[in-house]
Amino acid sequence: MRIATSAGRLVLVEGDHILDVESASGSRFAADPALVFARWNEFGDWAASVDVSGHPDAAPLGGAELGAPSPRPRQVIGVGLNYADHAAESGLPIPEHPVVFTKFASSVSGPSTEVRLPGDTVDWEAELVVVIGTGGRHIPIESARESIAGYTVGQDLSERTVQWQGQPAQFSMGKSFEGFAPTGPVIVTLDEFADPDKLAISTTIVSPDGTETVVQQGSTDQLIFAVDDLVSRLSDIIELLPGDIIFTGTPPGVGAGMDPKRFLVAGEMLVTSIEGIGTITQRFVD
Q1: In the chain, what are the domain boundaries?
Q2: N or C: which end of the chain has fewer CB within 10 A?
Q3: pTM
């Protein structure tokens, strides 16, 4: 199953078609995408019976105005240094336990956005994002996937100067400017993947003249703490709530790890892709 937010409304996605959930379900499920996660299992059972592309009310996906697929998460959790090569390029040791921070929920945005640069050291971090369905506390690792609604694509944009200023550092502030948590274009349930633990992930920078530079290429099978492990560990401390999102970490290739360092400038576009999910794009302005 694939779901999205189109013009603020929850839709099912199949191929090149979308279907409005509230209309197709006879108002059994609300149009507000944020409300579906608390009823995720019930919703999944209903959605499995729907022929999206063959439905008389189906509309073209092309041209749809897609927003964040989980538009109002109560908690946005970030995990740092979750790829060994990224820890190495950051000059930091491989963590023994997940390094956790938050991106404030007001930073969440959709898959195709314009982002205003708040400084000269804005960096990119392509990330697989886990969207919580039923959630809960003290979730055993062997049943962690039952609490997950699905996966989506995310960028953990970071203003490095703000992130590292002061003692201790200000991770959450440096990562929570407006538009710094773009996600989308869809949420994909885990049964849609041939192997949900091995998904190619990449970031490409497109310059104003159209030149493309691939800066990140990795695979989620390189996660130090796998998704099931993260969900279980986090739930031992945090109650994971329906619709929450977890940024699971970034592979190597961030600007701060380059020599010389490279950061985003106005006019550039960032293209982030994950196998089996899709692509999000951000354009940057002063």
Answers
A1: 2-67, 76-285
A2: C
A3: 0.97
